[in-house]
Design a protein that fits this description.
With 307 residues, the chain is mostly helical. It has a single domain, classed as Glutathione S-transferase Yfyf (Class Pi), Chain A, domain 2. Helix content is 58%, strand content 5%. The chain has a four-stranded mixed β-sheet with strand order 2-1-3-4. It is globular and about 70 Å long.
């Protein structure tokens, strides 16, 4: 439960469904962390649900805001949920109305340059991709749903990058994304300075957005990646993340067991991940061919009783 106060605003919903905790993080998913921080900044009291079942995790776009006794989907994904809050007259950016342009500009910069760099680290880097899939896989119940989810997410991100940057030289595109991500971190370092939040003493929606993608980079399984090391080397950014985790989200339960089975150093080599993927594809292919042969009549199975 997110903490409440006497001046707590009201929002018509019954529960918030998120991906589970990971170590010091109340959720290992960036968008879920964005919503948790946004709700904490808004002093919204939420009934947090993480025991959804493997098929619910597979089909739902989390985070998911539910209403009317958990039967109606109010909004899914961070942007939709934040917009729903604004439409319900709960807007943590109201006090910064004179700086709305600055908020929108920084939000656009983070979304266009930093978020792709984080997604590239998580889902396109062979060194860390298997560790990321393994974390999501615990909620999905392991193979084959984790394999399918990982493949779908990877392909979706590749397609997004190809549309945005072109696909003439994908490796060069990834290098460009990485360099742009580092420049955003430099900008955030200068903007934050010694302030508790990016625009002063009080948090904004942009603080929630930046925290959501910065926290799992620093405290997640890819914390040894180049982008994560670059972010961690900025002391004020690291303190920014830890301050929000401690002051605003410290009361949320964490899953310490995840740190035992998924250390920050990657347990599997890229070749092991590719071999697992190949074996899975071969297995699915064989099952598909057998099913096709059976239903098309190419093979028949007869059971005769011997007297």
């Amino acid at each position: 439960m997110l903490s409440s106060s006497t001046t707590e605003p009201k929002l018509a919903f019954t529960s918030l469904c998120i991906w589970p905790a990971y170590g010091a993080l109340p959720s290992f998913d960036p968008e879920c962390l964005c919503v948790l921080a946004h709700f904490a900044f808004s002093r919204l009291n939420a009934d947090i649900k993480t025991n959804l079942g493997r098929f619910a995790y597979m089909k739902e776009h989390l985070p998911l805001l539910l209403g009317d006794s958990d039967k109606i989907c109010l909004a899914s994904g961070y942007e939709a949920i934040a917009d729903h809050c604004k439409k319900s007259h709960i807007d943590i950016d109201e006090q910064f109305s004179t700086d709305t342009a600055d908020l929108l500009a920084l939000n656009a910069l983070v979304k266009s340059a930093f978020v792709p760099a984080v997604l590239d680290t998580f889902w396109l880097d062979d060194t860390y991709r298997s560790a990321i899939i393994n974390i999501y896989g615990r909620s999905l119940g392991g193979f084959p749903l984790a394999f399918i989810y990982g493949k779908q997410t990877t392909e979706r991100i590749k397609n997004q990058f190809s549309i945005t940057y072109g696909d003439n030289n994908f490796e060069q595109t990834r290098k460009t994304i990485f360099e742009k991500g580092k420049k955003v971190l430099d900008h955030l370092t200068l903007l934050l300075g010694t302030k508790p939040f990016l625009f002063g003493a009080s948090p904004t929606s942009v603080d929630a957005f930046v925290f959501g993608y910065l926290a799992p980079l620093i405290h997640g399984p890819a914390s040894n990646s180049g982008l994560a090391r670059y972010a961690s080397s900025r002391k004020n950014l690291r303190d920014f993340v830890n301050r929000i985790l401690t002051v605003y989200l410290g009361h949320l339960a964490t899953d310490n067991q995840t740190t035992d089975s998924a250390p920050t150093t990657v347990p599997k080599k890229p070749t092991e991940d590719r071999l697992r993927d190949k074996l899975a594809v071969i297995g699915v292919g064989i099952l598909t061919m057998c099913a096709y042969a059976y239903f098309s009549g190419l093979i028949r199975i007869e059971i005769s009783q011997i007297e």
